[in-house]
Automatic annotation (TrEMBL), chain A:
InterPro entries documented for this protein: HODM_asu-like
Protein name per UniProt: DUF3445 domain-containing protein
Pfam families the UniProt entry points to: HODM_asu-like
From TrEMBL, chain B:
Domain FAD-binding FR-type: 5-110
Name listed for the protein in its UniProt record: Oxidoreductase
Gene3D superfamilies associated with the record: 3.10.20.30, Nucleotide-binding domain of ferredoxin-NADP reductase (FNR) module (3.40.50.80), Translation factors (2.40.30.10)
Keyword match Iron: yes
Pfam families registered for this protein in UniProt: DmmA-like_N (PF22290), Fer2 (PF00111)
GO MF term set: 2 iron, 2 sulfur cluster binding; metal ion binding; oxidoreductase activity
Membrane-traversing stretches: none
All residue ranges annotated as the 2Fe-2S ferredoxin-type domain in the record: 234-321
Organism: Mesorhizobium loti R88b
Cofactor needs: FMN
């Protein structure tokens, strides 16, 4: 019973790996042999058993290692976690949501007991057993958002909703694909999406904002996003660009399979009940090419997607430097046969 | 309807007359669990099974968000309205099983505010009952000015006075007491947010004065208690579902669409949230828009309609539903 948590690293010696079961549950993001932006938002409901959607907040074999990596990032740079003063209530909302969902999905690892405002939280994988008063920040070692997101996989942006817009006013962001909470904090939806090419012209952000501001309590939504990362690095922040940026020049035909990782973000959107804010968990999944191509359908399809990606998108996603090497390597695994519909492996 | 809101199965746990016009209804969950947490200013949509007809009316939650064992709403009886409030007053008794939506908040507090200045008119007091409870629990700074026709129709004025004392100011129309709005608005500390809920005339008055006195629109929040207005019956063709329907005098376009078995999304049913926005494919006649969602330009263009509150007078109307 329970998850066997891996001992692994996302830096230095890069021992991160997916077990064979985890390769098959990887949220492969391409449902056809091409990729273009779409407002690909759907209701966030429980999916197939064994998939990353088995629970609405997913905990997997990388949990303990990811939380250790997060602690290292925060020790070096506390600004990865920020909350403007009016967002404390939303932090309590998030604490409740994550404790509830983790305890519900993984009772062997997490237990939440409430006695009025007196709550007890047991997190066995991290060896935590704390009793605190819900709503009283002085009874926790950190603010409520920081406390719970140091114990939850993925990044978290908490958005305040006002004036018909969403404002990024709090967050815990340590596993991001080249953007910075410290830069974006206090920005509204259009401001923090300003660098994204092509999508503004298509009116995608206007439609997406309309959808998001209407997200309701009890009806979360989700979408997938993706990019690629060299080496299994969780922290690919602008602050640490000097560490991971040069990695892109190290891809060779010999090491593609080991170095190049598909990075998929499962983003979900939840209305928070007390603050009326929206929380936007961004859960990052990594898989190296050698692991991904164990599923022949994914190998064929990824080859076609990366080969045909518009240049602007390839540039925005930072693939330019190693794309030819990757496409060449993947082409050998593409026999030209048709891929079956849907995301899953055959 | 399922596309709009998530539902809660509740039982009416109490019905309490408050004064000549207003009755309070208490709901608990049928399964005995706690109701979902909400934030001050939220409403629920109450489904009323009135014979053949299903009525759906939004009402503000007025209990404390800190206690979700029950939800409470207050309903003002409208003898010349479309019948929802009369149904609540006449037919809803303790023990009745009902269905309500999850809470939705279209009138939420701006938690950045240094001070919350609240203006209520009549039954517009209800969202402030929850907001003041929420703010008082957090030690928030607020002040509420409440205007009503007579002392006996000052719904919950006594409760508020007892709870919050000098933070509540009452004004009675029959004593010709009137909010000194300009003085009030021009003497607030920087960082104050203004909230107003009440009749349309009051909301317009407060918004206009606030704008003239230099209040930024981001600091002025309002909630209309806009029920759909009755009007002449009209016919509509729904292009996607291939139905032609008649909208009755007392029925809203949204209700008629729902009665025809089409399930459009909605949230507020009062013309403010934008959820039920529908494209007009063709029309020959005049729109009576009534909503606060579409821009003036969109109203003039005749390309969009908000079926929850808007009506039509003319020969033909085809909608994309």
């Amino acid at each position: 019973m329970g998850i066997t948590f891996r001992k692994e690293t996302f830096r230095d010696d890069f021992t991160f790996k997916n077990s064979p079961e985890h390769i098959r549950r990887f949220p492969f993001p391409f449902h056809e042999d091409a990729y273009m932006y779409a407002v690909n938002i759907e209701p966030h409901v429980v999916g197939t058993k064994g998939s990353v959607l088995e629970n609405l907040i997913d905990v997997d074999e990388h949990y303990v290692a990811e939380m250790q990596d997060r602690a290292l990032v925060l020790a070096e740079d506390p600004l990865r976690c920020q909350s403007l003063p009016h967002m404390t209530l939303a932090g309590w909302d998030l604490l409740e949501l994550l404790m509830e969902q983790q305890a519900l999905g993984y009772p062997e690892h997490f237990t939440l007991t409430r006695n009025g405002d007196r709550w007890r939280w047991i997190n066995r994988p991290l060896g935590i057993d704390d009793t605190f008063t819900f709503g009283d920040t002085s009874t926790l070692p950190y603010g409520p958002m920081e406390y719970i997101t140091r114990q939850s996989q993925g990044d978290f942006c908490i958005l305040d909703q006002r004036d018909g817009n969403l404002w990024m006013d709090a967050g815990m962001v340590t596993t991001q694909a080249d953007w910075s909470l410290d830069f974006d904090i206090g920005m509204n939806f259009f401001e923090w999406h300003a660098p994204v090419p092509l999508a503004h012209e298509k009116g995608i952000f206007t439609r997406a904002l309309k959808f998001l501001t209407n997200i309701q309590q009890g009806k979360p939504a989700r979408r997938l996003n993706w990019t690629m990362t060299i080496n299994p690095r969780l922290d690919t922040s602008p602050e640490n660009y000097h560490k991971w940026g040069p990695d892109r020049t190290t891809v060779t035909p010999e090491n593609v399979g080991d170095k190049v990782h598909l990075r998929v973000e499962l983003q979900s959107f939840w209305r928070l009940p007390r603050s009326n804010g929206i929380v936007f968990p961004i859960r990052c999944y990594l898989i190296k090419m050698d692991e991904l191509v164990t599923q022949p359908k994914w190998a064929r399809r990824l080859h076609r997607v990366i080969r045909d990606l518009p240049d602007e998108l390839a540039t925005y996603k930072g693939l330019t430097r190693f794309r030819p090497t990757l496409v060449e390597w993947l082409s050998k695994l593409d026999d030209g046969s048709a891929t079956s519909p849907g995301f899953g492996p055959d | 309807m399922s596309t709009g809101t998530t539902k809660l199965d509740v039982v009416v746990s109490d019905v309490v007359p408050v004064n000549d016009l207003v009755t309070r209804f208490h709901f608990r969950r049928r399964d005995g669990e706690l109701l979902p947490t909400f934030s001050g200013g939220a409403h629920v949509v109450v489904e009323m099974r009135d014979g053949e007809r299903t009525r759906l009316n939004p009402y503000s939650l007025m209990g404390s968000p800190l206690d979700t064992r029950e939800y409470t709403i207050s309903v003002r009886r409208d003898d010349v309205g479309r019948g929802g409030s009369l149904f609540m007053h006449r037919s809803v008794k303790p023990g009745l099983e009902m269905v309500i939506s999850y809470p939705v908040n279209l009138f939420s507090l701006d938690l950045r505010a240094k001070k919350h200045l609240m203006l209520a008119g009549g039954i517009g007091i209800t969202p402030f009952m929850a907001q003041t409870a929420q703010l008082a629990g957090e030690g928030g700074n607020f002040e509420l000015h409440y205007t009503c026709r007579t002392a006996s129709l000052g719904t919950y004025a006594d409760v508020l006075r007892e709870r919050y004392d000098r933070r509540i100011r009452l004004y009675h129309d029959d004593r010709e007491e009137r909010i000194e709005l300009d003085r009030l608005l021009s003497t607030q500390p920087l960082g104050t947010h203004l909230y107003v809920c009440g009749p349309a005339g009051m909301i317009n008055w407060v918004r206009d004065r606030a704008a003239s006195l230099g209040w930024p629109s981001e600091a002025v929040h309002f909630e209309h208690f806009a029920a759909p207005q009755p009007g002449l019956p009209f016919d509509v063709t729904l292009a996607v579902s291939g139905k032609t329907i008649r909208v009755g005098e007392q029925q809203s376009l949204l209700e008629a669409i729902e009665a025809a078995g089409v399930d459009p999304p909605y949230l507020c049913r009062g013309g403010v949230c934008g959820q039920c926005e529908t494209n007009v494919i063709s029309h020959d006649g005049k729109f009576i828009h009534n909503d606060h969602w579409l821009s003036e330009e969109e109203h003039r263009s005749g390309c969009k309609i908000m079926p929850c509150v808007s009506r039509f007078e003319g020969r033909s109307l085809v909608l994309e539903r």
